[in-house]
Every structure is written in C-alpha cells, then in structure tokens.
Amino acid sequence: MEHGSKVSHTYDFVGSVWSFFRRCVYSIISIGPIPNHIAFIMDGNRRYAKCHGLKPNAGHRMGFLALMSVLQYCYEMGVHYVTVYAFSIDNFNRTPEEVQHVMDLMQDKIEGLLKEESFVNKYGIRVNFWGNLRLLRESVRLAAEKAMAATAENKGAVLSICIAYTSRDEIVHAIQGACKEKYNQNQSSKDVKEDEISIADLESHMYTSGCPDPDIIVRTSGETRLSNFLLWQSSRSYLHVHNALWPEISFCHLVWEILQYQRVQPFLVKQKEKSL
Amino acid sequence: MDSRDKIPSLLTPQFKISQRSGAWMLLSEFCWHLLHFVVHMVHIVSHMVDSFQFYFISSGLLREYDILQVKKLRHLAIIFDSEEAHQTSKIGELISYLLSFGVKHISLYDMEGVLKQSNEMEFILKGLNDSSATSHFEADANPSTAFLDKEKMKLELLSFSDGKEGVAKAASLLYSKYLTDVDIGEHQIEPRFTEADVDGALRSVGCEGPEPDLLLIVGPARCSLGFPAWRMRYTEIVHIGPLGSVKFGAIVKAIYDFSKKHQNYGS
C-alpha cells in the first residue's frame, strides 16, 4: 500500500515538473506569433504498427492517444482551432475489417467525448464533424451529430474532425449549397435576378464556413502531398512535413513546427494583405 | 463553481503578457531569440549539407541520380513568389533545364499573374528558343498557353484567377444548367452534382487542366499561394527555396524522390 502511494507521489511530481516545463516553453514561444488554427493530416498509424510488429488496429489506437496529447498541447498554447483529417472518402477502399475497426473506434471515442470527465468538457471545446456524414454507418453518424449538438454552445476552443471528407467533395457540396441558396433567393425576390455565384457564396457553403483558414497544415510520416485535404483553405497556409509517424508525434515536434511557422509568418501575412 | 465557469481560466494561456514581470519578460524574450538563433543555425547547417549533396548530384558523382526515371513525371508545376517572378532570365534558365528531363507539361504559377504579362512571357520564351535549339515556339489561341512545337511540350501560365475564380465561374455555369433542368421539370429543388460535372464545367469556362504530379515551390515559404485547389489532390509538393538560391541539383533530387514515391490513394 505504502509502495503504491510512493509510486503515485513520484508520478505526480514528474507530472508537475513536466507541466511546469511546458508552461515555460509556451511562455517563451508566445513572444512570437502563435497560430490561431492548425490542421493535422494524421498519417502513419499503419506504418507505425507494422514497424512495431503490431496489428493495424493497434496503430490506430496509438494514433488516437497521440491525438489527445497534441490537442492538449495546442489548447494549452492558445491555438483556438484544431482540425484533424481522420478518415477520407478514399479510405473506404481499405479492407472491410479495417474500415469496420476504424468506425468502431471512432464511435467509441465520439461517445467518450460527451462524458463529464472528457477533455471536451474540461476545455469547453466545440466539436465539428466535417464531411459527407451520410457515407458513414448510421450509429457513427448519429454519435457525431449528437456530439455536435451537445457541444454547439461551448465557448472554448474548436476541434473539427474531418471524416468521410475530401476537399473536392467539399467543393461540390458548396456548389450545390450555393445553387440552392441562389435559386431560393431568386424565387423569393422580385428585384433583378442574380445568376452569378461568387467565391464568397461558395465559401459560405463550405464545411469550414465561419472558421478561419489554417495557419499551418502539418503532415506526418514524411509525405509531401495534401491528399485532398483543405485544398481550398490552404492557399495561405504554411505546409509543414514531419518525418515522424503520427503516433510518434510529440511536444518537441509541435514546438519545432511553431518555430518554423514564426520564421515564415511575416511572408504569409504579406501574402494575405496582398489579396485583401 | 460550475465546470463551464472554469473553462475561460483553463483556456487562458498560463503566462499572459500583461501579467509577466519585466525580468521574466526579458528572460523569455532572450530565450525566444536564442531558440530562433538555434533554428537558424540548424537551417544553415542543413542548407550546407544540401548544397554539398546538390553539388555532387550536378557533377554526376552520385550514380543513382544519373539514371533518372522521369516517365512517371508527366506534369510538373512551379509556384513562384510574384516578387521574384520578375526575374525572367532565371526563370527561363530553369525552364530550359527542365526541358532536358522530357516533361510533357509544365505549369508556371504566380499569384498576381506577373508571368502572364505578355512582355515577360515573350522574354522567357525568347530565352527558351535561344537555349534549346530543337524547340520551336508557336503561340496558342489561348494567350496563357504556349506549345513548344517539336518537343510537343506544353507550357501553361497560371495565376490566382485560375483557381477560386475559375471554380466560381464553373459553379455559375452549373447553376444556369440547373435552372434549365428545373424549367423542364427534370429536377426538384435539390441540386445534385458530381466531381465529373465540375470537371466538365471547368473545361467549359477554360479553367481545366491536368493535376501536376510534382509541384515545386520557389520562394521563401512552403505555401501553395492559391494554386488552383481543384488541381492538386495528390500532387507532391516540394519547397526548393527562393529563386536566387535554387540549385539544379535540388530539382534533380526532387524529381528523383518523386520517381521513388509510391502513393496508395487512401486505400
């Protein structure tokens, strides 16, 4: 019993030192600009499992743990919006067993988000699910819709999870939404009819409407493509590649990418100003 | 205290600038500059290592780069920072170098359309004709596209307006088609389009084009600067630094790395 309590004290002590260290690092890096929105392409779960002789499913579970730590660090640092690419429409082409497992894992974790002790409640996070949710099995879709409704009033940070998402699908979705809106407007208005769809019309029908464009898009496992993720929104984003696989991503990786972002941020701001 | 009341305090960064004491602030600033100095040094060292590697590649000392398989690379795009896009002689040099790889389609992009301005373009193409004896330039009906005749190589010039504005034009076209369908009673209120419909509409408004296999970013940051979003789904994006310091070895390495890439398109 006494031994157990000693272990627990040591654990608490290490935890406090680690937490203090993190605060010091946040204090230093916040001298420079801190991104408002970071998006992650979580790549490398299966490769990680393969390298460590595990089943692919175990890789996805490790990936979820990595995501939890990354979210905690981001919110502690003051990043207000975090977006993650969890499941692409193309991922439905994987083996039925793997798709089934990922869906089970997602349903389990989405339901977990609503529990009192979850990090969503701890940080008052608003959760969005972006994508063609009709492609998901009903139980996952319902869990996602329930989570969005339950956190809609939260005033804290915003976590957006892209599932059954591709950027092209989002653009098609926005065109459909804009056409429908234009049609309804023209039906109800007696003035001169407007048949042109503008960029702003399209953007108001993107899943990302109301959310600023990402400042940084991070991809892990050394891959250099965006794989159909936020193509529309990434025109002024700094694209960062980590060689680490997603489950290996750590606090140091996050600090490194923020420092890299701070180096190029004046150039990106200039580009934004030019387009205004 | 309700858990929601705790949220603002939890979310507030632990060290608000206004709450920091002067000494702490000074120390933080010193550490921040020190950290950035370290990052800068890391960049200098990695730049030196790269330069050596690029030098060895260019001089043919690294054997694996000699037998470069570029069959996979059909379409290459390059993004320039608009400020650097005025350095036309360097751009011309870069393109004539790329011609030697036998790439069939090269797209050049800069946000403000500096390259599209005719006199700049003429200058680049003149440079191309001088440096590549076998190629012959013939202007296409579309002012932003040029064909290098004998080589059957297509050169395309793009700017910001070919991206989002192009999609908005395509959306307007789809809307007008949708109105016609509604009029003849084929559709109810719900518009339904596919990616193929958008492809077709982009073709009709003159904003279509192939997806580049490889996209080289020439400029200070790894950022796509508004390159047409519809055309970069699975494009490999490689940053090769500002135009002034681009080494040909860097391009060889980017093409070599691309030739070794395997994509499984999500499956």
UniProtKB/TrEMBL annotation, chain A:
Keywords: Magnesium, Transferase. Belongs to the UPP synthase family. Pfam families: Prenyltransf. Its EC number is 2.5.1.-. InterPro entries: UPP_synth-like, UPP_synth-like_CS, UPP_synth-like_sf. This is Alkyl transferase. It comes from the Eukaryota. GO terms for biological process: polyprenol biosynthetic process. GO terms for molecular function: ditrans,polycis-polyprenyl diphosphate synthase [(2E,6E)-farnesyl diphosphate specific] activity. GO terms for cellular component: endoplasmic reticulum. It is an enzyme of class 2 (transferase).
TrEMBL record, chain B:
Pathway: Protein modification; protein glycosylation. It comes from the Eukaryota. Its cofactor is Mg(2+). It is an enzyme of class 2 (transferase). Gene3D superfamilies: Decaprenyl diphosphate synthase-like (3.40.1180.10). InterPro entries: Nus1/NgBR, UPP_synth-like_sf. It catalyses: n isopentenyl diphosphate + (2E,6E)-farnesyl diphosphate = a di-trans,poly-cis-polyprenyl diphosphate + n diphosphate. One of its GO terms (cellular component) is dehydrodolichyl diphosphate synthase complex. Keywords: Endoplasmic reticulum, Magnesium, Membrane, Transferase, Transmembrane, Transmembrane helix. Its main location: endoplasmic reticulum. GO terms for molecular function: ditrans,polycis-polyprenyl diphosphate synthase [(2E,6E)-farnesyl diphosphate specific] activity. It is found in: Endoplasmic reticulum membrane. Its EC number is 2.5.1.87. Signal peptide: none annotated. Belongs to the UPP synthase family. This is ditrans,polycis-polyprenyl diphosphate synthase [(2E,6E)-farnesyldiphosphate specific]. It comes from Acorus gramineus (Dwarf sweet flag).
